[in-house]
Structures are given as C-alpha cells and as structure tokens.
Specification:
Layout (H helix, E strand, L loop, with lengths): L1 H10 L30 E4 L9 H8 L5 H22 L5 E4 L7 E10 L3 E10 L4 E10 L15 H16 L3 H19 L1 H4 L3 E4 L2 E4 L8 H74 L3 H37 L11 E5 L2 E5 L3 H20 L15
Parallel strand pairs: 1-2, 1-3
Antiparallel strand pairs: 3-4, 4-5, 6-7, 8-9
Amino acid sequence: MVIRIFVLALLFVPPLAFALDEEPVEALQALEEVPEDKLLDVGIHVFDSGVPEDEYERLFLEEKGVYEDIRKSEARWIPMSLKRTLESTGYWGAVRMAPSATSVDVIVEGAIVSSTGKRLEVDVIVFDSTGRGWLSKRYKEEADPLAYEEESTAEPFQSLYNRIANDLLKERSELDPEDFALIRRVSELKFASDLAPIAFQDYLAVNKGRYSLARLPAEGDPMMVRVSAIRERDHMFLDTLNEYYADLYAKMETPYRGWRSSSYEEQVAIDELNRAATWRKILGAIAVGAGIYASGKGREWSNVGEVAVLGGIAAVMDGFDKSAQTKMNREALKELAASFDSEAQELLFDVEGEVLRLKGSVETQYASWRQILRDLFAAETGLGADPNKVLSPSPQ
C-alpha cells in the first residue's frame, strides 16, 4: 500500500517553478546639462543576428525556435532600443544608428545570443575612436511580464538596455578631460584619413590597435575645413538613415509586440513542458525501479510491483510525449514569424544640387554614400583616396 501511494505520488508531482529575483534597473539620468566638450557622439552598429549563412545550420536553428526573418529585424530593433535609452539619459552627444563602421567617438557593437519573448541575451562590445576598450560583456534579462499586459506600452527588456547605459556611463565617468579631447580629435582625423589617406595618413599613429596623435593640423587648415564640411554631410545622411530606422521601429512595434507576447506564452509553456517531461522521466524511472524491487519480494508484493512498473513506464512515456509537444510549440513559433524583412527603401539625397538615388539595403546605401564623399573630396581638393595616386585639380 505504501509503495502504491508512493508511485501515484510520483506520477502527479507538479513540475518545479523557478523565478527570477533580480530587481529591475533604471537608467541613470543627467541632473544638469552636460558641457559640450564632455559630450561624446555614439555610433551603434546593427547587431549580428546570430543566424548562420549556411542553410543547413539555419534549418537546425529553426528546430530551436530561431527564425532568420525575425532575427534580422531584431538586429535593428535592439540597437534602436539602446539608442533611445542612451538619448534619454542626457549624458551623450548625438546617438546614431550606423549600419557599418564609421568614424565616431564611441562605437557600440553587439550580437544576439538568444532572443525569445521571455528571455533576451546579447553580447556587447564598446570602444572609443582611440581603440580603448570600454565594455565586453554578455547581458541577460528575463522579460517583465507586466509589459505584455494589453494596455502596456513598456519595453519588456528595458532593464537590459538600462544596464548597458549605466555601464557605459560608468566607463565615461573614468575619463579625464584630456581623454574627451583626444577621443573627439582622433575620430575627426580618422574620418579625414578615410576620405584622403594621402593627405592625413601622418596625423595619427597606431600601436597595437591604439590610436594617438602624431601631429595636429594647423589652425584654420583649409583641408580640415573641407573635411568638417563633408563630415557634416555624413552626419546629415546618417540622420536621414536614422529617420528610416525610427520609421521601421514604429512600424515594427505593433506586430513585434504581438509576436513577442505570443512567443512569451509559448516559451512559458515550453519551459513548463520541459520541466514536466524531465521530472516525469526521472520519477517514472524511479517508479520502475521500485516496482522491480517490489516484484522480487514475493506474491504479496507482486501486484503492487506490477502497478509500479506500469505506472513508471507510463510516466516515462508521458515525458517523451510532452517532449514531442515541445517541438510542436516551437513549430507554432515559426508561424508567428510574419514578414519582417528590413530592406531599405530607395533614398534620395542632394549633393551639390544633384539628386542621387541610393538603392538596396541600408548597409549597401551607406557604403555607396561613403564612396560618394571620397569622390567629392577628391574633386574639391585634387587628392585621391589611393595614396599612390594624385588626381589633377577639377576645373569645377
């Protein structure tokens, strides 16, 4: 009788529940206006989606609920959310999404490790224009379930972005006044060197990936005046791209919130099923062992032993059945992945009175734009981007 009760108890033990006890974090806010010479511009690159190029590997990840179209959108959504968080603190200069490497004071790069409606895990690397590393850290967060309430507009993983912002602020607070000036100057000269290496390659020294000033341009140097003017155009173009990112962010908000909310429910169900399946397999195996033991004790125990063995096998099979349900739930997640392709629309931009059409993805457009700037600088100065080639001054 005791074993019979024990077996029945094993079959109906509820799965254990686990909770995240970590308190939410608020982003620190500037209590007064930050002096302009302490404002560093931030460029946030599009995150690595974590989706491999190999088709077989992508199909393997889909079995785990990782879908290429959603991840590509998230690779833009996550840095955009971080941008909005940094802007809200008041501690930074211009914070822009940048599709690829660009000359800016502080650069933020990242990669998505794991992303569901319930959990977010990202790797973040931050460094400044001198090559000094600020951060190299993995951030993990569980969604705030209140953010999925029907009338809520809160970001489920806002605490994660707040942690990154606070860590960046901590690194910034350790800079000396000379560090701010050096970072800003180096980012300016790196932009100039990208435009015309032949003219600016001697201004910066590089040692083991760290940039320092080898010499400075003369005050009022006309070449640097041109560089500043072209750099302003680059900022204008990035601002245009950021309007696109903001528009994409706004359009994604409703469907992405719906996807994450459904994904959250699915993931909670998957977690519960995984725990239930694991415990039923373990407890079922124990019940089988107990039944075999009882069967060897004689006739008076044999009926009890048979019940234990059958009940234990049923528990093991139930565990495998629930594992199959988990796969079905993952397939249901795939159905929620509706068209999140984030290719840019055609952009028009005015350069010297000429309207240029840039097509393709945002990344492609920006690469084309930087080449246009190099050509423009070469036409204005007669200096080519190739250090071994000097162009004749343009009659224009």
